[in-house]
Every structure is written in C-alpha cells, then in structure tokens.
C-alpha cells in the first residue's frame, strides 16, 4: 500500500467498548485500504487513518451503517490530523487509567457459538463457557476498567496457544474477546466429584431423576429442578419456605416456550433478545407445567437458555427447568462461591458450579408486554449497565447520584444527558443487600468515573437509601435534594419518554403503593400537575387508615376493614366477612390513631378488593401477591365499571371509592362470581382515574398524561387507563425500560435534581 | 386542685401531701436544699453520679405501675447502670389545675413506697400548679445522686468484639402495657409494665462479672436503641438472634396486631449488659438467680464485622438490619 492521502482523527462515542468494535474498525480499514490505528480511550474509540478522501468518507459511513450488533454509535467526530506513519492498520492496546461509559451488559450466547458447541468437530464442542465478541459474560465479570482480561474474573485463566491466536487475530470472531476460553485453558464445571462434561451429564441425570440442584449462572446461582413434576416443585417450595411466589422457568427455545404459554410476536422478540429476560406470559392452563410453579396465576415467567451451560443442560434434561434465584427466604441471591454451599445447604441436593468467579450479583431481568410494548419490571442481568438518554436539553447537567427507595433498591448515576440506572439491588433490609448497595455505588462510580456534584434522595427520612445518601452528601459536602416519592415516579416516565426539560407541565397519574408526599403524609393514588422541577397535587384517592403501618401492606384484610368501615360503616359490614380476625382491636387502633397512619394508596385499594374476593391470604407471602391474584382473576372479562364518586375536599379533588364498595358488596350478596367482580373493579379504577386525569388536563390546558407507580405493573389496568386517556384525545407517556415500581425511582429523582440545579443556574 | 399565685392554703395542702408521705427521710429542718456528708459518700466509691429525668405518661396509672413509681425507678436505674449505688433523689412536680387531690396523693404514695422498697430517700422537691392545658395532668422530674463503685468503669464505648450481650428478662412489657392502656384495644390478656428499680440486680451482676463493659436501661427506643448506640460508640457490630430474644407471648401477639417491633418498645425494668465472654456464664447465672432477672438471656454478641450496625438473625435463618428509628415510624413498603 502506498502512502497517499490525507490523515484524520475520528472519535466514536456510544457503546463501543466490549462489543467487538475495534476489530470491526480493523476490518473496515482493510476493506477501504486505509492505514492507521484504533484505540480505546476514556469513553470513546479513537481512530487515526490516512487515505484518499473518498475512501475515508466510505469508511465513516460504514462505521455507522455496519456497526456490530451490540454497539451503539452515538456520535462521530472527524478532525484533520498529522499524517500517519506506515502502511498498516493496527489495533492499539488499551491504556491504563482510561475509563469507559461503554461497558455492556451480559449477552446471551450468539448463534455462531451455539452451533460451535453443537459441532462434534469443533474445539469447543459441548464446552459450557464458549463465548465471542458478540456474546457471553461482560458486566458480571468486570472488576475494573478499561475492559481488558486482567481486570475481569477471567484473569486467573492463562490463554492456551490456540485461544491466544484467536484473541490476537483481528479477523477472528474472538479477536480481543476478553472472556475467551476453551476446554484446555478455560473455566471448568464441577458437580460433586465430576468435572467438565461429566459434571454436566451427572447433573442432568440427577435433575431428570427429580433432584433439586443449584446451578451457577452469570450473575448468581439458580435453583433448578424439573418444572413439570408437581412433587419436585412442591418439595422445592417446602425447602425454600416459599409457599406462593411464582417461580421462573427456563426453556430451550421458542417452541418449548410455546408449549407452556401463549407467545405473541412481541413476546417472542423479548424472549430472544440478547438480554434474555424473564418474560411474563399467559400460561396454558392445561400445559405440562407443574401447578406449583405459579399457583393461582394466569401468567408464568419464562426465559430462554442464555449461556452454553444452560443450552447443554436443557438439551440433556430434555424439558423445562425451574430456574429461580438461589437464596434462603428473605435473603438475596447467592453469587459468591464461598457462600453457596453453606447458604443452600438443606435446600439443594447438589451444586453444578464452576471456577469462573462472579464479580457482582445480577439477578435475571423481568419484563412483560403491555400496551404494545416491553415493560421492564425488574432491571437485571442483560439490561444493566446500559445507560439511557435524557432529552437533549439536559445536555450539560451536572453529575448526580440518586439513591432511589428501600424496596427494589436501585441507584441512578447521571451526567449530562446520560443516566445510568443500576440493576435491581434488592430490598435494603438485610446487611447483604446493604453491602451490595454500597458496593454497587462504589463500583459504578469507579467503572463510570462518576463524581457526583449533588445527591438526590427520597423525602422519606426512614428509608435506608435516604440515610445513606444524606450521610454521603454530608461527608462530601454536596447539596442534598429530597424528592417527594410520586413526583420522582412521574419524572422517571417523563425523562424516559424524552419529555423536554423545559417542555412545560404534564398531568402525572401515579398509582402506587405508598410514598411520602410533600405534605408529609402518605400518598399513592394521585393526580399531579408537574414538570421536572415542580409538582402540585390536584386530586387523590380518599385516604384511609393503615392499621399497623407496614403490616397493613402485608395483611390486606386490615385495609379491607378500613375501606369498608369508611365506605359503609360498621353497620354495613357483612357479618360473614373477615371471620375470626381481631376486628375490634384493629378498629380501636384506627379510632385511637395507634400506628394507623392515613394513606391514599392505590396498591392498598387493589389489596382490599383481593381480600374481599377471598383472593388474598391472611398474610401475603410476597409483595404484590394480592394484586397479582386479582389481575389474574379478572382475566380478559369485559364488565361495566364499578362507580366511584368525585368530591372536593381541602382544595383537592378526591376520588371516593364508597360507591365502588357498596356496589361490590351488593354484587357479593347477589352471588356475582369473583372474576366478574374483579373485572368490574379494574374497569372502575381505570375509568375513574382516567376521567379524573382528563378533567385535570382540561382544567389546566394540558394535553399529555404521564403514568407511573408500581400499580401500573398490572397490564390490564395500564392498557385500560392508556386507552381511556387516548380516547380523551390525550397523549399518554408510559414507563418502559424504567420500571414503574420503585426500581425506577432513582431515575426520576436524578432528573428532578438535574432540572432543579440547572434552573438554579439560570439554565 | 386550683392554681393561684402562691395561695398559702393550697401550697400548704400540697406540702402536706409530700411531707407526710416522705417524712422520716432524715431531713430535719425544711431548708431549700439537702446536704450530704462528703466523707460518708466518699467511703462508698470514688466518683459521684448525677442524673435527671422528666416523666410524662398517659395514662398516669397503668397496669404494673404509675407515674410516681416510674419517676423513682427511672432515675434509680439511670444511676445504677452507671455502676453507682443510688443515694438520694429529688422530685419536681408540675400539676395541671383541676387534678384531683386523691390522684396526687396516690402518685406521691407510690413514689414513697417505691423509694422505701429501694432503700433510696427523696430528700427535696418542688411543686407548681399550672393553668389547665399548660401541662397534661401531672409531670414529674426526678434527679438523683449516687456513688460509683471504686475502680468500676462501664461505658457505651467499651464494647469489644467477642463480648456477650445479655438482657435481664422479657422485653417490651412497659411499652405494650402503656399502649394497651391508652388504646382500649379489646385484648384479652392484660400486659403489665415491668417498672422496677434495678440497682440491686446491678450489684449482683457486677459482683459476678467484675469485668463488665457496659450497662444501659432499655427505656425509650427499647433494646434496639441501646444496641445501636453501643454499636456506634464502640465501633463494633452487634449480632443478635431473634430466637434468643425473650418475649412474653402476649407482647409478641400485641406487637403483631399493632405492627410494632418489640425491640423498639420501652422497658422500665430491663437493662442491656455487655460482659466479656469469659464472664458471660457467671453473669447470666447471677442475674437469673435474682428476682428481677429470672428470664434473663444472652441475646447476642459483639463482632468486628459491620461496625456501627445491629443485625438480627431471624427465626427463618435470614438476616435483618435493626436500625435506629427516625422520627415517627412511617410505613416504608411502597
Ligand atoms: Fe413507589
Ligand atoms: Mg435518663
Ligand atoms: Zn458468540
Ligand atoms: Zn484455550
């Protein structure tokens, strides 16, 4: 190649590290006959090329058009540069001390690797740790940056000559694939006394024989067992002391998924995504799944095999496997080898494990399809740490750390338009989750070189996340912004949907469990008029007392009692309802105000209805149990909405559910079946809140309604409310990648903090 | 009782109540202050302990006690857990106009009885009657002095990893009794306050465990508050086991209905003690042999891990953070 043409320097930003971007550049440069080099720098890829102007232009066009599937090119800048020496194009090693915003999530095994492990002639035939630049572990093995093997949990495995050759060859699919491994040099399976393929075979036959095993995955250990055997699944529930919470099931492919549940085109796409989430699907009630997998549920959470280990295991077992997080009751998922054996003793019959350490716990993500789109319910493996973009006028916002809530805790690190919502870290009630939370923050700050200039927390002083953030702000001398819970929920939906920072107010409809409002009382069913900076409550559900505080959220009968007493009084209370419950005591608590705070909670309204229909146990064994049972009960039935009344009180509009309860009690007395009542309830709540939100929109001259809050995980409700608002001619913004529950709270907190700080600087 | 600008008849009346009840306390002339012989005090130890506490409780009389007994025991206990032998108390009384004289008499009699049984004298006091609404029925403030045993040095910052945490009995009785009395909660089993003076028990404990590190009476905020202060001040982690925490079944049931955590309920006759591991057995045996410690239990240990944190191993084998309450206990579940 002769030395001709001008040189230039090209900077590519986006997700361009850990996705095979440099070899891709290398191949392009060769194709267009360009000399120069490519390197990872800080948060970008820098390319130095020399060649004819047309070739360089074609190169840049291809850079964008043909980028690797997992890359995301966001910005390409070109500046003239000093001439390049030499005629070759080469890949420069990453320099130390550079930091990337481009760490990618863990990726499901790609088709090429899948065929390789199925090919008896291939070097990696039946090798459980096969991966390439298009697939395999990423975030779960990263210990530091830049993303290179010595800073991953693969550092202990020295490359064999064959792997080294592939790693060094820019033309190879495994060029600079950091987790590259083969049976000679890579991680090994172990199951009792068995190793490698023998371990896999032994574990598979144990599972077939009805064993309950721990299986080490990408972001933690799972507990696996035959999902079609009622006896085995019931035994797992007994050992885990987990009576009712649905268990996720792993299947080998879409066909296997379709044998268990209805799978729409969108759902098939979600299942097959490289993030391989658990997707909630309508189960076939006459299908082969053991009833205990998801007792009383219309839906079941399925995921496809996403590692070579899973592919091989499922193929050997030949049927679906329960794949639930390995933990003891109330404890987070186990991910450290040294803890696994002790923590799972008495629960599993054996461990199918291996010697590649997991750097951080990453639980499986959970999504469902509702209102025509993917709704993330739990952000987890495969989704984190993908940064999301805020609207353009957030450009230049200072770096902010937002700490979210205590339940489904997740933090958000933002800088300018980029907002990184961490994966689901768990409930901040146990020291192990608290450790993970602190570690995730340190981790993220490190990996993303994030130095916050402000800290955002929830207004609730009792949240550990709030206390953590407050201490951090004090320690570093940073401004602390305490954000009302539901303003944050709505702001999360705004920011995710690209609503401009200076786009003016919208109507926010927050249907949620409980959160602290700006008047110091508990909110959870509110219509707000808000932008990013300010929020004003216009309407709410009539508050009712929660006798026992948090216990009322676990025991729906208490809330039913409070709702019915408020609606129809003690005299109207059906004599056959809540038999054997200490009603007098709870009524006395409410009368005397003993641990019975008032709350306008939509979540508790659903709980109460579930209790009325006998769908809620005395004490819930997991959060959302009652609400999920109510949604399942309603099914697809269309029914006339239960009525709700609107009235004005204390300058607020209040939705009064008393007519709803009176009608429901009449239905109950008349023997109307539970599914019809559940359907009427859903329709009633949807109609009342949609009409109220539309009325608020009209009164304030607004045309957009943003929805959020954990209650909107109910697909039937979400779809009904969205349809009714659309029918009012309103634009509707829905939560999608950011969970509607508290797992998305930090995202909204950060946006509010950023908007307020920018406003205070006159921007 | 009527309030008035020092109407002598009324003041005489009140002073009658106190003087006749506290007579024989050894103060001959009604001076404005009590006077102590320093050499006699010095013979009992090497430091003077001095403490004060204000008592407001609704209702004034509750199962197992009343505000008067509470005011005497509370201050005795504050002295005792510092390793002091209580010597004398003072008492200031604020009375809301209209409080029946019989009520006052009953409270004062209870104070006198409690003090006498404890072997502690109430040597001085003051009373004021204020207008209706300016206070709620009756407020008491007691102040006490005591003498700290020579060489004994207990303190909240003295916990060390490996040390053993014990309590002298069933927890939460006082808090549950008060709430129950206040709420008219239609519960079948009455719960009595544990209100009691602990200085004699403390003497027994110190004799059995001379290396004792710390004692605290677990009043407001309960055992959880004491353990959190201990963890913070000593820079240690505190690990307790739910199954080892002594609870009356009635209190447990009460807490379940009310949605309260018994670890945060107030006690008025319970202390938390931290002793070195080698003295733990002797300490437990000694406390259990005492009338006020029959249900004593070792509930946990101090650890080097997680300094500042109190962690409870739950009955299901999990772990739960037990932290300080911030303000009112608002629900956290979203
Ligand atoms: Fe929430
Ligand atoms: Mg005190
Ligand atoms: Zn691959
Ligand atoms: Zn190799």
TrEMBL record, chain A:
InterPro entries: Acylphosphatase-like_dom (IPR001792), Acylphosphatase-like_dom_sf (IPR036046), Acylphosphatase_CS (IPR017968), Carbamoyltrans_HypF-like (IPR051060), Carbamoyltransferase_HypF (IPR004421), DHBP_synth_RibB-like_a/b_dom (IPR017945), HypF_C (IPR041440), HypF_C_2 (IPR055128). Residues 197-382 form the YrdC-like domain. Pathway: Protein modification; [NiFe] hydrogenase maturation. GO terms for molecular function: acylphosphatase activity; carboxyl- or carbamoyltransferase activity; double-stranded RNA binding; ligase activity; zinc ion binding. Keywords: Hydrolase, Ligase, Metal-binding, Zinc, Zinc-finger. It catalyses: an acyl phosphate + H2O = a carboxylate + phosphate + H(+); C-terminal L-cysteinyl-[HypE protein] + carbamoyl phosphate + ATP + H2O = C-terminal S-carboxamide-L-cysteinyl-[HypE protein] + AMP + phosphate + diphosphate + H(+). One of its GO terms (biological process) is protein maturation. Residues 7-93 form the Acylphosphatase-like domain. It is an enzyme of class 6 (ligase). Gene3D superfamilies: 3.30.110.120, 3.30.420.360, 3.30.420.40, 3.90.870.50. Its EC number is 6.2.-.-. It comes from the Bacteria. Involved in the maturation of [NiFe] hydrogenases. Along with HypE, it catalyzes the synthesis of the CN ligands of the active site iron of [NiFe]-hydrogenases. HypF functions as a carbamoyl transferase using carbamoylphosphate as a substrate and transferring the carboxamido moiety in an ATP-dependent reaction to the thiolate of the C-terminal cysteine of HypE yielding a protein-S-carboxamide. Belongs to the carbamoyltransferase HypF family. This is Carbamoyltransferase HypF. It comes from Azorhizobium caulinodans (strain ATCC 43989 / DSM 5975 / JCM 20966 / LMG 6465 / NBRC 14845 / NCIMB 13405 / ORS 571). The lineage of its organism: Bacteria, Pseudomonadati, Pseudomonadota, Alphaproteobacteria, Hyphomicrobiales.
């Amino acid at each position: 190649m002769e030395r001709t043409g001008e040189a230039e320097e090209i900077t590519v930003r986006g997700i361009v590290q850990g996705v095979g971007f440099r070899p891709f550049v290398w191949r392009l440069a060769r194709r267009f006959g360009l000399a120069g080099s490519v390197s990872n720098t800080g948060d970008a890829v820098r390319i130095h090329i020399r060649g004819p102007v047309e070739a360089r232009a074609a190169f840049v066009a291809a850079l964008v058009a043909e980028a690797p599937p997992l890359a995301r090119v966001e910005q390409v800048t070109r500046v003239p540069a000093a001439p390049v020496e030499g005629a070759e194009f080469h890949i420069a090693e990453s320099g130390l001390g550079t930091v990337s915003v481009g760490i990618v999530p863990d990726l499901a095994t790609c088709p090429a690797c899948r065929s390789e492990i199925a090919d008896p002639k291939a070097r990696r035939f039946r090798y459980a740790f096969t991966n390439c630049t298009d697939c395999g572990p990423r975030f779960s093995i990263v210990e530091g940056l830049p993303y290179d093997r010595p800073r991953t949990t693969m550092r202990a495995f020295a490359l064999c000559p064959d792997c080294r050759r592939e790693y060094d060859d820019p033309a190879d699919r495994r060029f600079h694939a950091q987790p590259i491994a083969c049976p000679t040099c890579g991680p090994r399976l172990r199951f009792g006394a068995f190793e490698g393929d023998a371990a896999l075979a032994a574990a598979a036959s144990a599972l077939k024989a009805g064993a309950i095993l721990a299986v080490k995955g990408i972001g933690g250990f799972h507990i696996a067992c035959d999902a079609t055997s009622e006896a085995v699944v019931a035994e797992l529930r007994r050992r885990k002391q987990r009576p009712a919470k649905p268990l996720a099931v792993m299947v080998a492919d879409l066909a296997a998924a379709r044998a268990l549940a209805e799978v729409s085109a969108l759902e098939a796409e979600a299942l097959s995504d490289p993030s391989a989430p658990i997707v909630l699907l309508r189960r076939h009630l006459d299908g082969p799944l053991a009833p205990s997998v998801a007792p009383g549920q219309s839906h079941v959470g399925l995921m496809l095999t996403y590692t070579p280990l899973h592919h091989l295991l499922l193929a050997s077992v030949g049927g679906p496997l329960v794949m639930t997080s390995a933990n003891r009751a109330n404890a987070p998922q186990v991910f450290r080898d040294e803890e696994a054996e002790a923590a799972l003793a008495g629960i599993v019959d054996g461990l199918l494990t291996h010697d590649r350490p997991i750097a951080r716990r990453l639980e499986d993500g959970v999504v469902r399809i509702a209102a025509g789109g993917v709704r993330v319910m739990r952000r987890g493996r495969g989704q984190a740490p993908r940064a999301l973009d805020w609207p353009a006028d957030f450009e230049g916002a200072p770096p902010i750390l937002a700490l979210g809530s205590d339940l489904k805790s997740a933090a958000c690190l933002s800088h300018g338009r980029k907002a990184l919502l961490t994966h689901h870290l768990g409930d901040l009630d146990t020291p192990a989750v608290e450790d993970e939370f602190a570690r995730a923050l340190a981790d993220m700050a490190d990996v993303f070189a994030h130095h916050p200039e402000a800290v955002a927390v929830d207004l609730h002083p009792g949240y550990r996340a709030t206390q953590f953030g407050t201490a951090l702000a004090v320690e570093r001398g940073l401004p602390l912004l305490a954000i009302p819970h539901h303003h944050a929920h709505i702001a999360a939906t705004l920011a995710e949907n690209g609503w401009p920072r200076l786009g003016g107010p919208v109507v926010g409809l927050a249907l949620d469990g409980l959160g602290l409002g700006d008047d110091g009382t508990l909110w959870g069913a509110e219509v707000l008029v808000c932008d990013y900076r300010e929020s004003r409550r216009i309407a709410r559900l009539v508050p009712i007392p929660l006798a026992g505080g948090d216990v009322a959220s676990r025991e729906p009968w208490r809330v039913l009692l409070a709702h019915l007493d408020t609606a129809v009084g003690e005299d109207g209370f059906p004599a056959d309802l809540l038999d054997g419950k200490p009603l007098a005591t709870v009524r006395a608590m409410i009368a005397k105000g003993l641990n019975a705070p008032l709350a306008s909670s939509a979540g508790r309204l659903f709980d109460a209805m579930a209790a009325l229909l006998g769908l809620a146990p005395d004490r819930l064994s997991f959060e959302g149990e009652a609400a999920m049972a109510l949604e399942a009960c309603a099914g697809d039935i269309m029914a006339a909405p239960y009525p709700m009344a609107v009235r004005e009180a204390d300058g607020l509009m209040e939705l009064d559910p008393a007519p709803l309860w009176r009608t429901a009690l009449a239905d109950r007395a008349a023997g109307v079946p539970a599914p019809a009542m559940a359907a009427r309830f859903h329709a009633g709540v949807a109609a009342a809140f949609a009409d109220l939100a539309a009325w608020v929109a009209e009164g304030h001259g607004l045309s957009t309604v943003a929805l959020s809050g954990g209650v909107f995980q109910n697909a039937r409700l979400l779809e009904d409310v969205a349809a009714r608002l659309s029918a009012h001619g309103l634009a509707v913004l829905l939560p999608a990648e950011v969970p509607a529950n508290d797992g998305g709270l930090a995202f909204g907190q950060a946006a509010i903090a950023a908007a307020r700080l920018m406003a205070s600087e006159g921007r | 009782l009527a309030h008035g600008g020092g109407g002598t008849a009324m003041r005489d009346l009140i002073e009658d109540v106190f003087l006749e009840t506290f007579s024989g306390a050894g103060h001959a002339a009604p001076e404005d202050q009590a006077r102590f012989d320093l050499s006699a005090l010095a013979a009992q130890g090497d430091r003077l302990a001095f403490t004060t506490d204000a008592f407001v409780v609704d209702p004034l009389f509750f199962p197992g006690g009343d505000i008067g007994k509470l005011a005497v025991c509370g201050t005795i206990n504050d002295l005792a857990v510092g390793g002091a032998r209580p010597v004398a108390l003072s008492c200031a009384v604020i009375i809301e106009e209209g409080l029946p004289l019989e009520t006052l008499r009953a409270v004062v009699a209870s104070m006198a009885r409690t003090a006498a049984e404890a072997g502690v004298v109430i040597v001085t006091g003051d009373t004021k009657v204020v207008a209706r609404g300016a206070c709620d029925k009756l407020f008491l403030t007691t102040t006490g002095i005591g003498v700290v045993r020579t060489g004994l040095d207990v303190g909240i910052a003295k916990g060390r990893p490996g040390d053993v945490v014990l309590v002298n009995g069933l927890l939460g009785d006082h808090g549950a009794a008060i709430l129950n009395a206040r709420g008219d909660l239609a519960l079948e089993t009455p719960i009595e306050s544990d209100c009691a003076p602990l200085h004699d028990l403390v003497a027994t404990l110190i004799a059995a465990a001379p290396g004792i590190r710390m004692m605290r009476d677990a009043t407001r905020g309960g055992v959880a508050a004491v353990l959190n202060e201990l963890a913070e001040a000593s820079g240690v982690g505190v690990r307790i086991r739910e199954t080892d925490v002594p609870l009356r079944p009635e209190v447990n049931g009460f807490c379940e209905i009310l949605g309260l955590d018994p670890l945060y309920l107030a006690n008025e006759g319970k202390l938390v003690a931290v002793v070195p591991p080698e003295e733990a057995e002797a300490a437990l045996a000694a406390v259990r042999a005492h009338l006020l410690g029959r249900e004593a239990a070792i509930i946990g240990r101090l650890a080097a891990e997680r300094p500042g944190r109190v962690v409870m191993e739950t009955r299901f084998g999990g772990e739960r953070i037990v932290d300080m309450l911030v303000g009112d206990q608002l629900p956290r579940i979203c």
